[in-house]
């Protein structure tokens, strides 16, 4: 069964609620894929939590229900591959200022992690369109509001 | 006492691994398809892995549903 993971913006939409959140939930329920959680995405989400209670919500809702083998964090080899990928992107002429952005760099890491584990990333983050040319990871669009 | 006896299996015999031999009616086509899809080596594993994943997936989706709108003022983060 194919593996899928939500990108940070998908989780943010769920937390904020509304029709987009409902559409994402419905799509995941119907997708027939096995959802995993990317721990770098959780790190990003925690960074946005303004209150301690929000941090607890993120962990309770998105990490705790995931069995340990579905919580995806990079191995030593995958961290190495991320560094090599960033270096290759710089050599290929990718904008160094963009690669210096923490969020973009982390997106390269997320992309590398998805590629090495065969995970489809559900995202509408435009950074991944540019990263995909270099990393060749699989992405799918988050469902839009009905 | 009634509740205690009701929770006991009348057909089961527990193995050392904690599994229980039970008389269940299962569609053999579904069982074969599950074993192939899950890549399990035997049919008992197919049943157990399928049930495990079903329970995991249900819990994950339940919590995603419960998180909906839980932090309506979640800020814009640079992602």
In short:
The complex is a heterodimer of chains A (146) and B (79). Chain A has 146 residues and is of the alpha/beta class.
Descriptive account of the structure:
The complex is a heterodimer of chains A (146) and B (79). Chain A has 146 residues and is an alpha/beta fold. In chain A, 61% of the residues lie in helices and 12% in strands. Chain A is built from eight helices and five strands. Chain A has helices at residues 8-16, 19-30, 39-48, 52-63, 76-91, 96-100, 102-117, 127-135; strands at residues 3-6, 34-38, 71-72, 119-122, 139-140. A five-stranded parallel sheet of chain A has the order 3-2-1-4-5. Chain A is globular, with a radius of gyration of 15 Å. Chain B has helices spanning 2-7, 28-38, 43-67; strands at 13-14, 20-21. Helix content of chain B is 53%, strand content 5%. By secondary structure, chain B is mostly helical. Chain B has three helices and two strands; from the N terminus they run H-E-E-H-H. In chain B, strands 1-2 form a two-stranded antiparallel sheet. The termini of chain B are far apart. In chain B, 10% of the residues are buried. The radius of gyration of chain B is 20 Å and the shape is elongated.
Largest chain interface and its two residue counts? A-B, 39 and 24 residues
Number of strands of chain A: 5
Helical amount of chain A: 55-70%
Beta-strand residue fraction of chain B: 5-15%
Task: Count up the helices of chain A.
Answer: 8
Q: State the major sheet of chain A.
A: 5 strands, parallel
Spans of chain A of 5+ residues with little confidence (pLDDT < 50)?
A: none
Rg from alpha-carbon coordinates of chain B: 20 Å
Distance between the termini of chain B: 57 Å
User: How does the helix and strand content of chain B classify structurally?
Assistant: mainly alpha
Backbone shape of chain B: elongated
Strand order of the largest sheet of chain B: 1-2
Number of strands of chain B: 2
